[in-house]
Amino acid sequence: MADHRDGLPQGKKGNVLDRTASAPETFQDPGLPPHRPRSTDVDSGAAKRAERQVALLFAVSIIGSVLFFIGYFGIRVDGDIYSVTDPEATSALRLQNLLLGGGIALGMLGIGVGVVHWARTLMPDHELVEERHDVVTEAQRAEAEQIMGTILDESGIKRRPLIRNTLIGAAVLAPLPFVGLLRDLGPLDLTPLRHTLWEDGVRLVRDPSGTPIKASDVTLGSTFHVLPENLSGLSHDDGYLDEKAKAVVLLMRLDPDTVNVSPGREDWNVDGIFAYSKVCTHVGCPIALYEQRTHHLLCPCHQSTFDLANECEVIFGPASRPLPQLPISVDDEGYLVATGDFPEPVGPTYSQRVIAVNEMEEENGN
C-alpha cells in the first residue's frame, strides 16, 4: 500500500519530524569565547588607580566602624527623650542614631563594594574549566594546597600591601559594632526579669497618659495598653525604660462565659477583664495585635498567636509557653489594681532557663 505522505520533503512525514534523517551525529565543543583584557590588565596606571580605589573603599569601612564607636561610647543621652521641653536629649538621641546607623552602613558598604571592585578590576578574570574530583591521596592534597597558593598569588594580596592592610583593618573593625548591639539586647543577669513593679494595690494606668482605669471604662471587646502607676516615680537613671519593658500589660474585656479559667485563678479577673504581659515569650517582642472576634493575641515579629479565651495558651508560632497573667481586682474607688506581681518571670522562654540556673547556683552556694 502506498503511503499518502510520500510526496512530502525527505525527512518529514506529515507533521512528524524524522529526527534520524536531519540530526547531526556529533556536536562540536564551541570552546571558550576569546578573552578581552581589561584596562587594568594592559595599563599599569589604571591598575594603580584601581588599587587606590579599593583601598579607599576599605578605609571608608574603617571610618564607618569608628563613627559607630563614637556614637555608641561617646554620646550620652540624658534626660527625657519623649519630652518636648528637653530638646537636648532629643538632639543627642538623633545624633547617636545617625552615627550608629550611618556607621554600620558605611562599614558594611565599604568592605562589600571594595571586595567586588577588587575582584572586577585587579583579580585575574580568565575563564577556567576544571573537572571536580575528590581529594583522597597525599599527592592530591598537595595539589589542592598548591591550588590555594596559586589563588592567593593571583588575587594579588601578597604584592599589594595597601589593599591587604586596609582589608585587614576593615575586616577586624566591621564585626565589632554587632558585638555591641548584641550586648544591648539584654542584661547578662536575667534574674531581674522575675520581678516587676507590679504589687498588691498598684493601680493600672494608661500608657502613655498615666491616667488610672476604672472597671467601668473597659467595655466588651476593648483593649488598653497598661503600665503600673508607680512607674511614673522613676527617672531614666533609675531604670525607667528597663522597668517599663518588663511591666507592660495588655488589658481586655471578654464575655466571662467564653473564657476558660483554671482552678485557683477565678479571682484574677474582674467580670471578664483580663490583664496579660505584653512581652512575647518567644524573643520578647511587644504584642499589640488583638483579634476581637477570635480572642487571639498576635506577635508581629514571628507570628506567635495566643488564645486569650484559654489563658493565652500558644496556638501558633514559635513561642513555647503562654503569656504570664497579671492578677487584678478593683479598689474602693472602682479603679483597677494589681493584687500582686506576675506569678512567673516575663520575657522569652530561654531566659527562664538562665534564671533557673542562677537560682540553683545561689541555693547551692548558700
UniProtKB/TrEMBL annotation:
GO terms for cellular component: plasma membrane. It is found in: Cell membrane. SUPFAM superfamilies: ISP domain. It comes from the Bacteria. It is a multi-pass membrane protein. This is Cytochrome bc1 complex Rieske iron-sulfur subunit. The chain crosses the membrane at residues 54-75, 95-119. Signal peptide: none annotated. Gene3D superfamilies: Rieske [2Fe-2S] iron-sulphur domain (2.102.10.10). GO terms for molecular function: 2 iron, 2 sulfur cluster binding; metal ion binding; monooxygenase activity; oxidoreductase activity, acting on paired donors, with incorporation or reduction of molecular oxygen. Its main location: membrane. Belongs to the Rieske iron-sulfur protein family. Keywords: 2Fe-2S, Cell membrane, Disulfide bond, Electron transport, Iron, Iron-sulfur, Membrane, Metal-binding, Oxidoreductase, Respiratory chain, Transmembrane, Transmembrane helix, Transport. InterPro entries: QcrA_N, Rieske_2Fe-2S, Rieske_2Fe-2S_sf, Rieske_Fe-S_prot. The keyword Mitochondrion does not apply. It comes from Kocuria subflava. It holds the Pfam family Rieske. Iron-sulfur subunit of the cytochrome bc1 complex, an essential component of the respiratory electron transport chain required for ATP synthesis. The bc1 complex catalyzes the oxidation of menaquinol and the reduction of cytochrome c in the respiratory chain. The bc1 complex operates through a Q-cycle mechanism that couples electron transfer to generation of the proton gradient that drives ATP synthesis. Residues 1-45 are annotated as: Disordered. Residues 246-337 form the Rieske domain.
